[in-house]
Amino acid sequence: MSTLSEVAARAGVTSATVSNVLRNRGRVGEQTRQRVLEAVAALAYRPHLAARALAEGRAPTIALMVSSIANPFYPEFALAVERAARTSGHFVIVCNTNQDPLAGRAYLEQIAGTLSEGVLVMNANLDFADLHQTEARGTPVVLCMWERPNDPPGLPCVAVDFRRAGELAAQHLLERGHRRIGAIVGSKRSGIHAARYEGFVDALRAAGVKLPRTCVRYAPDTIEGGYAAARELLDLHRDTTAIFATNDLPALGSIHAAFDLGRNVPDDLSVIGITDIQLARQSRPPLTTVAVPTVEAAEMAVSLLRELIERPPDTRHTARHTAREQPRVCVASEPRLIVRGSTGTPRRKRG
Amino acid sequence: MSTLSEVAARAGVTSATVSNVLRNRGRVGEQTRQRVLEAVAALAYRPHLAARALAEGRAPTIALMVSSIANPFYPEFALAVERAARTSGHFVIVCNTNQDPLAGRAYLEQIAGTLSEGVLVMNANLDFADLHQTEARGTPVVLCMWERPNDPPGLPCVAVDFRRAGELAAQHLLERGHRRIGAIVGSKRSGIHAARYEGFVDALRAAGVKLPRTCVRYAPDTIEGGYAAARELLDLHRDTTAIFATNDLPALGSIHAAFDLGRNVPDDLSVIGITDIQLARQSRPPLTTVAVPTVEAAEMAVSLLRELIERPPDTRHTARHTAREQPRVCVASEPRLIVRGSTGTPRRKRG
DNA sequence: ATGAAAGCGCTAACAT
DNA sequence: ATGTTAGCGCTTTCAT
Q1: Do B341 and B282 fall within a single domain?
Q2: What does the alpha-carbon distance between residue A65 and residue A131 come to, in Å, rounded to a whole number?
Q3: Residue B47: how many CB atoms within 10 A of its CB?
Q4: What chain A residue is nearest to B222 in terms of C-alpha separation?
Q5: Which end of chain B is more exposed for a tag (fewer CB within 10 A), N or C?
Q6: Are strands B119-122 and B61-66 parallel, antiparallel or unpaired?
Q7: CATH number at residue A17
C-alpha cells in the first residue's frame, strides 16, 4: 500500500498537493494535476481511510444496531440502509445485540465516535440511557422504527404509524364480515407491539365488536410462537373465524396451525399480519398483511442521521436544551393493506 | 470524547503511561496505575479506534462481502461471522455487492487494507483477479463456501463438500424407491451449483438411474424460480415422483408448484433441497434437505482469516511462491441428510 | 517505573 | 499554484 507522500515524491510535488488534486480542493495547475494523477495510477494509490478519518475528525462508517440479524424483516431493511449509507459515503458496521442490552452497550462504547460517526438503532432492545449517553458524547443516534409517531421517544427517530396498521387490519377483517376474531400479540414484555394491538382493538370497538381477553395471546415473534398461540386460540374458541397477528411470522405460524387442525385458510379461517416481509407473498396461501414502508424508513433514517452528523455539534445540543425543541421525528408514509389469499369471508355456520 | 493525554494530565502522568496501563504493557507502579484508572473512569475515556488503528498499522474491522443480504442463507452465516469476529476483536463491515463485480471491486479498493484488515467472501460473485490483487496488496482474503474441496480455488478458503450433498440427496431419493426424478439447478451461468448437481447425477448413475436432459431445469435461486421450474418439469413429465433442487428455496417453490397442480407432498411428489435454512423446518410440510455446516464454516472462515492476518506478510507471500504450497483450504464437516416431511415413497401407479 | 519523542497517513490552515 | 507546518489520538522505541 503506497502512501500519499510516495505519490508526491514520484510526481515531484508535496503531499499537500496530491491531497488537493485527489479531493478537488485548492487550485492546482493542470500539468501538475496530470503528473499527480499518473503517479496515483502508477502506484495504485488508495487513500488510507483510517488515517483520513483521524485527520478529518470524522469516520467513514455508521453502526447499525440490530437485535437479531435472523429476523426476516432485517434483510430488506439492512439492504436499504447499506445502499443509502453508501451514497452518503459511509460503510455499515453491523452490530448484533442479540437482544442483550449489555452487548449493545459494549458495542456503543467501543465504536460510537471512535470508529463510527453515527448510530442507527433498529429494534435493538437497547438501554435508552446508553443511547442518550452516546448522544451526549457527540455521536448522533437515530431510532429506525418508532411505532408511535405521536409519542416521541426523546431521540431522533423515524416513525411508522403502527397503530394505523392495526386499524387497517381490523377494518379489513370487519369488512369481510368477521366478528369472532383472535389476536396474537408479539411478546408482551417489550410492549413493542402495543401500538399495533391498540389500533386493532380500537377499530374493533368502534365497530361494536368485542375482543374478549381469552381471544388474545401473547407469543414470541416467530412462526413457532404463532403456531402455538393459534392452536391454543383455536382450541379454546372453535368458532373463531379470523386471526390477527401483530407480525407476519406469527401470522404464518397461525396458518400452519389452522391446517394442522384441519381448517382451511382462508375458507375456514382468515389470517392477517403486519409488515409484509418477503415471505408473506411466497407462502401458501400468500399472506394478507398490512405493509409497512421498510425501505422508505431505512432511507429516511440514514438521511436523518447524516443530517445530524453534518450539523455542528453545538447546534445539536442547543436545539435540545434551549428551545424546548424535541429531537426530530420523521414520519414515514402510512401502512397499506395488502390483500392476498389468506383472508376471505367467514363461512356460514354449519346448519 | 476525552483523549489519552487528557487522561494523562488528570492522572499526572504522560500518555505513554496511560497507554501502558490500558494495554497491560510495560511495568507500571501500582499506585500510578490506580490513579490512571481513576482518571480513565472519571473522564469516561474510550480509546479512539481509528487513531489506534493508524498507530498500530492494523484495523479493527473485517469486510464481509455478500452478493445479496436477502438470501435467507445469509442471516445465519452473518450472525456466526459476527460472533466469531467479535471474539477476535473485529467488527464486521457488511459489503453488499448485489451480484455486481464492479460494486465488489469498488468495495475492495476502498476498504481493503485501509479500513479492514481482512476480507471474507461469501458467494459474492466477485472477480477473482480483484481478490488476488487485494491479496497481493497485503490484505488477506478468505472464500467462505467453496463448493469443491478437491478443486482448490487458488485462494485461502473454507470448503464444504457440496458434491457429497448432492450424493446424499440422490441416495435418499433412491432409497425411498424413486426412479423418475427431476432436478432443479441454481442458475446455470455462475455454475456455482455444479458440484451439487454432479454429485447427484453420479449417485443416480451409479444406481443405474438415468436423468434425461429434459428432467433438468436451471432456475434462479429463489422460491419463485423453483416454482416455475417445477411447473415446467411436472407438466412435461407427469410421472415424476421426486424433485431434487440444489438449494432449499427452489425446493420450497417446487412444493408450492406441486400443490397448485393438485399434487400432494410427499404423497404424490417428494421434494428435497440442500442447505437446511431456517425456513426449511418451518414450511409445510417441513422440507427434507441436506444440511450444510453453515455456522461451522463461518467460524472456520474467521479463524483462518485471523490466522492469515496474524502471520507476517512475508510468510504469506513466500509460502505461496517458493514452496509450491497452495493457499490453505479448510474443509468443514460433511453435509448431513435431514429427513423431514417432504419426502416419502412413490405411490404405486394407479391401476 | 516513567517520560520524551517520533511517527502512523492524512488534512488543513497558512505561507510563499 | 504549490510548499510548510502542524496536528488528529494513539503506540512504541529509547532514554532517564
Answers
A1: yes
A2: 11
A3: 15
A4: A282
A5: C
A6: parallel
A7: 1.10.260.40
* Strand D nucleotides within a 7 Å radius of protein CB atoms: 1-5, 7-14
Q: Could you give the CA distance from residue A300 to residue A81 in angstroms, rounded to a whole number?
A: 9
Interface with B, mutate which of A2, A40, A45, A54 (most B CBs under 10 A): A54
pLDDT at A5 over 90: yes
For chain B, the C-alpha Rg in angstroms (whole number) is 26
| β-bridge pairing A181-186 and A216-219 | parallel
My answer on whether B234 and B103 are in the same domain is no
pLDDT at A319 over 60: no
What's at A241, amino acid-wise? T
CA-to-CA distance for A37 and A42, rounded, in angstroms?
9
Residue B259 identity (one-letter amino acid): F
- The count of domains in chain A is 3
Does B284 lie in the same domain as B166? yes
Among B120, B44, B46, smallest CA distance to A94 is for B120
**Would you say B257 and B230 are in contact if contact means Cβ atoms under 8 Å apart?**
yes
Cα separation, A100 vs A126, in Å, equals 7
Q: Is B111 close to A282, i.e. CB distance below 8 A?
A: no
pLDDT score recorded for residue B324: 55
pLDDT per residue as tens digits for the range A43-87? 999 999 999 999 999 999 999 999 987 788 888 999 999 999 999
Question: Can you tell me the mean pLDDT for A146-168?
Answer: 97
pTM of the complete model beyond 0.85 = yes
Closest of B214, B222, B235, B152 to residue B187, by C-alpha: B222
CA dihedral A305, A308, A313, A318 (to 10 degrees): -130
In chain A, which residues have their Cβ closer than 8 Å to the Cβ of B94? 78, 82, 92-94
**CA B113, CA A49: separation in Å to the nearest integer?**
9
